[in-house]
Amino acid sequence: MSDKEREILDVFKKLVPVLTDFEEEKLLAFGEGMAFKAAQQQKDSTSLADSIKKPPARAA
Fold first, then answer.
1. In the prediction, which pLDDT does 40 show?
2. How far apart are CA 46 and CA 39, in angstroms?
3. Using CA atoms, how far apart are residues 7 and 57, in angstroms rounded to an integer?
4. C-alpha distances in angstroms, 50 versus 37, 38, 41?
5. Is 55 helix (H, G, I), strand (E, B) or coil?
6. What are the distances in angstroms from CA 31 to CA 12, 23, 26, 58?
7. What is the pLDDT along the chain (60 residues), one digit of tens a residue?
8. How far apart are CA 41 and CA 35, in angstroms?
9. Residue 8 and residue 15: Cα distance in Å, rounded?
């Protein structure tokens, strides 16, 4: 784990106990949204890389 990742986790470790239930829900939704977006971007970049590596199919 990088120093930056440790710093992020330390901040959230201190933050979460003082959040209201509503604020926790908002933070969770934000994190889930970021995770979804990252997964989509990874999927899209993998698909693009695969299409570049594969030659186009030729009609027989």
1. 93
2. 10
3. 48
4. 20, 18, 14
5. coil
6. 12, 12, 9, 43
7. 999 999 999 999 999 999 999 999 999 999 999 999 999 998 888 776 676 676 666 665
8. 10
9. 11
